[in-house]
């Protein structure tokens, strides 16, 4: 292993997590990786989890193995008909030295709901959580030092058995891999510029927009790439029926603030129920804000005082401007708005355990 990279060596002071020997973190060689240069991109790590489920719909407990490519039939359901779901969550070093997850049971539940929608056997919550904990633990040396990023955790569920007709596959694979990541949007806390997509929609009523179906994401690549080519960070999608109500920002949930009231689109089935979204709503409520889950007319959003988006990857990201039909709305004079900043700080303080976790949202990986 060439050198120790530029990561700061972790201190060996006794704290609760070191005491229980968090995963030999101190002994393990630190990967030779420039933690300050981390971006949101895939980096291969040491270990992965894999479980399978046959036609009896019974999940057997899976196994840890070295990270490797998969082998599957060219007729696999996921390759031919997109029968697949993913999840996304983060493990990070908290201020007390522990490696913590944020509300992982919500990801377990969401994947079960998605499995039902896509005709796959739901992964039991216990199995999901064990898989996530074990995969993080066995890749602990890839968790960036505090403040440098996170270990992104990617559970995947797919129809891996062969099927020729359009129908549920005869076998399923559930796996978990991880990758260290830095910030999702280049430029960090600086407010991002967005553009309303006038040509494309993300999801339609009765479709699969409310679950993390893999097939929902490829159609967003070209719209996103086009917007980036014009200098925007992402697109905002409006609803597919009226092309009037704000739905989502790429793969993050949308919020706006007007006269101190916080609004976010209600969950009608076309919007992904984000864990970050739910957490922001609760945090804001606990801090005395009025929070409305309702249809947000694009004109209302353009006239708002602050806008931001929320998601595991993006955390809370301030929106500096939105372009729509030749009009550009700017927010908070290009700065991060005060309420956006307050919510960002409150959320990240809980996630990194710099503030009391009154909600009981963080879970230690041991
Ligand atoms: C994953 C995702 C989100 C954010 O969900 P979190 O649970 O907060 O990460 C929002 N919108 C879409 C379309 C997503 O795929």
Straight-line N-to-C gap: 26 Å
Number of strands: 17
Bound ligands? pyridoxal-5'-phosphate
Number of helices in the DSSP assignment: 8
CATH class of the largest domain: Alpha Beta
Q: What spatial form do the alpha-carbon principal axes imply?
A: globular
The sequence of SSEs as H and E is HEEHEEEHHEEEHEEEEHEHEEEHE
**Largest sheet features:** 8 strands, antiparallel
What's the gyration radius in Å? 21 Å
Structural class: alpha+beta
Strand coverage percent:
25-35%
CATH topology of the largest domain: D-amino Acid Aminotransferase, Chain A, domain 1
The portion of residues assigned to helices is 10-25%
CATH architecture annotation name of the largest domain: 2-Layer Sandwich
Q: Give the uncertain stretches in residue-range form.
A: 1-14, 19-27
Can you put this structure into words, describing what you see?
- The chain has 366 residues and is of the alpha+beta class.
- It folds into two domains: 4-182, Aminotransferase class 4, branched-chain amino acid transferase, N-terminal domain (D-amino Acid Aminotransferase, Chain A, domain 1, 2-Layer Sandwich), CATH 3.30.470.10; 192-351, D-amino Acid Aminotransferase, subunit A, domain 2 (D-amino Acid Aminotransferase, Chain A, domain 2), CATH 3.20.10.
- 21% of the residues lie in helices and 26% in strands.
- It contains eight helices and 17 strands.
- The protein has helices at residues 16-19, 77-81, 104-117, 125-137, 221-229, 275-286, 298-302, 338-351, and strands spanning 47-53, 63-66, 84-86, 89-93, 99-102, 150-159, 172-181, 192-196, 234-238, 246-249, 252-258, 261-264, 291-293, 306-311, 315-324, 327-330, 362-364.
- The strands form two sheets. Strands 1, 2, 3, 4, 5, 6, 7 and 17 form an eight-stranded antiparallel beta sheet that branches. It has a six-stranded mixed β-barrel with strand order 8-9-10-11-14-15.
- α3 (104-117) crosses α4 (125-137).
- The longest helix is centred in the first third of the chain and has 14 residues, at 104-117.
- It is globular and about 55 Å long.
């Amino acid at each position: 292993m060439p050198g120790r990279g530029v990561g700061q060596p972790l201190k060996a002071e006794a704290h609760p997590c070191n005491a229980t020997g968090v995963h030999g973190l101190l002994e393990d060689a630190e990967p030779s990786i420039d933690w300050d240069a981390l971006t949101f991109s895939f980096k291969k790590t040491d270990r992965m989890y894999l479980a399978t489920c046959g036609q009896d719909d019974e999940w057997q407990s899976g196994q840890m193995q070295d990270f490797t490519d998969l082998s599957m039939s060219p007729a696999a359901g996921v390759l031919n008909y997109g029968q697949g779901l993913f999840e996304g969550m983060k493990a990070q070093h908290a201020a007390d030295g522990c490696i913590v997850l944020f509300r992982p049971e919500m990801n377990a539940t969401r994947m079960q709901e998605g499995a039902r929608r896509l005709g796959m056997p739901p992964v039991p919550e216990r199995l999901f959580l064990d898989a996530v904990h074990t995969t993080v633990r066995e890749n602990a040396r890839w968790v960036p030092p505090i403040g440098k990023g996170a270990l992104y955790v990617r559970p995947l569920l797919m129809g891996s058995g062969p099927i020729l007709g359009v129908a549920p596959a005869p076998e399923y694979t559930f796996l978990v891999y991880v990758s260290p990541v830095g910030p999702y949007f280049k430029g960090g806390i600086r407010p991002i510029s967005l553009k309303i997509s006038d040509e494309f929609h993300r999801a339609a009523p009765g479709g699969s927009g409310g679950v993390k179906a893999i097939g929902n994401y490829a159609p967003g690549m070209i719209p996103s790439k086009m917007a980036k080519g014009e200098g925007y960070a992402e697109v905002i999608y409006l609803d597919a029926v009226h092309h009037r109500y704000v739905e989502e920002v790429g793969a993050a949930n949308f919020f706006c603030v007007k006269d101190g009231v916080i609004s976010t689109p209600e969950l009608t089935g076309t919007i992904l129920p984000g864990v970050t979204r739910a957490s922001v709503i609760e945090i804001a409520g606990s801090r005395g804000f009025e929070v409305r889950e309702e249809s947000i007319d694009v004109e209302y959003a353009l006239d708002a005082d602050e806008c931001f988006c929320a998601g595991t990857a993006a955390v809370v990201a301030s929106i500096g401007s939105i372009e729509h039909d030749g009009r550009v709305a700017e927010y908070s004079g290009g700065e991060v708005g005060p309420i956006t900043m307050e919510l960002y700080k409150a959320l990240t303080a809980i996630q990194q355990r710099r503030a009391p976790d009154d909600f009981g949202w963080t879970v230690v990986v041991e």
